[in-house]
Hints:
Elements: H1 2-22, H2 29-36, H3 40-43, H4 50-71, H5 79-86, H6 91-107, H7 109-121, H8 126-153, H9 162-182, H10 187-205
Helix pairs in contact: 1-2, 1-4, 1-7, 5-8, 6-9, 6-10, 8-9, 9-10
Amino acid sequence: xxxxxxxxxxxxxxxxxxxxxxxxxSVSVGEIAxxxxxxxxxxxxxxxxxxxxFDAIVESTAAQYxxxxxxxxxHVQSASRDIPVFAEITEDALxxxxxQIFAYSLHNEQISRFRRMMTIEQFRSPExxxxxxxxxxxxxxxxxxxxxxxxxxxxxxxxEDPDTLAMLYVAPVLTLIGICDRQPEREGECLEKLRQHxxxxxxxxxxxxxxxx
Length: 213
């Protein structure tokens, strides 16, 4: 049983590696099997086909992301759980949280490859386009809008439109991750820009004061 689970995971890992490099349509089941070191008929003992492999990658990556970000005290699925994390946070502590998520997004191999795969695959179907927007834009914006809404309600930050504030906060981070995906050698430069972004945003929402919330 353990051996079967190991093979199943290796199929997902190798398929993600191939999909992220070449795209779903360009990769055959035979090539996935060859990369794993098994014959194609053996692969069908684990998955009924290529789409099932893709679906399992989506499911397992979502579970990994949730578990890993939870360990950073940032549960992107639940703003209400994280409000205490962001209440009374300092500018330096906020940057450190953003930096950790940034580094994780770039350097966790599964997460990085999944994002690259979805960048390629987002135009393959309306369902994948919706999944990409939902996971990498809508959910992240909604999470931060929920945080900002709560901090406004308690008078900790200036009262502005929380959804617009979330866009102002999130969009530069996503832009910088995209730059690093395309040009990894620019990571140092992007980290400096990330620091500048967090500093400016922090001071703006606190009315221009560099103080603790």
